[in-house]
Write a structure and sequence with these properties.
about 270 residues, alpha/beta
């Protein structure tokens, strides 16, 4: 049984012959990533394609740091702002060879989308600002989300064109005690956009994997309705992870851990 088959059986609860591995030399999963546009030149050190300027106190330890200058901190800048182009030259130049290597190794191929809207709103506008904007600037928030999802949609389409098995989105939804903002706002702004993006992935034959930190118990059914197939982290064993609260530690032991996960989330096997 190939690594791809092991992962597929794991995802569909079809009794794989062994646990699927997502890390290390024997990983059953091959990760592929798109690249910055070939003509992208940062105006200053630490700037990414979104115009966010990052600063790290420990760059030598691969600490990504945080955004210290937000390109849309002032709404007056929005009219001149240009979102990254998903179809820019050089974006997928290295992807075909990486996919060929993964296929040769019999791996399940996962295309990394990168950050989702929960992170990008923060990066572009600033955390406190965008939280206030959800209530006071609905038109601007809508326009920002349209730009973000246009990019994510374009990347998803290209991963599908290259035949990957799943897409992987990093998008933390909550803090330790629950949602970052009200579920009513989340359902108004984000749920329909997630649903459209993930429906596209499914139509193109791909599964949807989301990394979402925090207490996401209030999000779980909605995320399932949006089309998320797998959730948690791509560390060690490939699994359906997620938890009701990081403040409620599970007892030691895999069987106890699995039992309590099912009790916490009976609607998501």
């Amino acid at each position: 049984m190939t690594g791809k088959e092991v992962v597929q059986r794991t995802v569909h609860f079809q009794t794989p012959t062994r646990l699927a591995m997502a890390k290390g030399a024997q990983s059953d999963i091959g990760l592929v990533s798109f690249a910055p546009a070939s003509d992208f030149l940062p105006a200053v050190a630490g700037m990414n394609e979104w115009g966010c300027i990052w600063h790290s106190l420990n760059p030598e330890k691969a600490d990504q740091g945080q955004v210290t200058e937000h390109p849309l901190a002032d709404w007056d800048q929005f009219e001149r702002y240009r979102f990254p182009d998903a179809y820019a030259l050089g974006r997928f130049t290295q992807v075909p060879q990486k996919i060929a290597d993964c296929r040769l190794a019999g791996q399940y191929i996962v295309g990394i989308l990168g950050k989702g809207p929960m992170h990008l709103l923060d990066d572009l506008r600033g955390f406190e600002q965008y939280l206030c904007d959800l209530m006071t600037e609905p038109d601007n928030i809508t326009a920002m989300l349209d730009g973000i999802f246009t990019f994510l949609t374009g990347i998803t389409q290209q991963y599908a064109d290259h035949g990957v098995d799943a897409i992987f989105l990093f998008d933390d939804q909550a803090i330790q005690t629950g949602p970052i903002f009200s579920m009513a706002l989340w359902r108004a702004y984000l749920k329909p956009r997630y649903a459209d993006l993930f429906a596209l992935a499914h139509e193109r034959g791909m599964k949807v994997y989301m990394h979402a930190c925090g207490d996401i118990s209030q999000h779980l059914l909605d995320l399932r309705e949006c089309g998320v197939d797998k959730r948690g982290r791509l560390h060690g064993r490939w699994r359906k992870s997620g938890y009701a609260s990081p403040n409620r530690p599970y007892p030691h032991g895999q069987k106890a851990d699995q039992r309590l996960r099912r009790q916490a989330h009976p609607h998501w096997r």
